[in-house]
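Take a careful look at the sequence and tokenised backbone pasted below. I need to know what the token row says about the fold.
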Amino acid sequence: MLGGTRISDRAWQASFNVAAGSSPFATYACVDTWLTDFREDLPKIDVPVLVVHGTEDRILPFEATAARLPALIADCELVAVEDGPHNIGWTHADEVNGALLEFLGVVVSA
């Protein structure tokens, strides 16, 4: 899912450079937040929620993360982006933008 035909090598490198350039302290400090369990907070969300997630995400696997959310959030719409990796905003921009526009009720004329 790295590179491929849906993203240019330059775009992939730019994304990598952003990650590699992050603060070492922030990178280390954020690990503890990954262990925070927010499941009790999710039912308190009282606005519509759109979750757009790649099915091939190896960082946050779809089945362990996004697929569970509709059962935990009352008004949650889940859009699974087939074959989408972790950064679907780069690789599957058309699918992400389409899902967002549909969720917002924006009509796009052809």
Summary: The longest helix spans residues 9-20. The radius of gyration is 16 Å. The first strand starts at residue 49 and ends at 54.
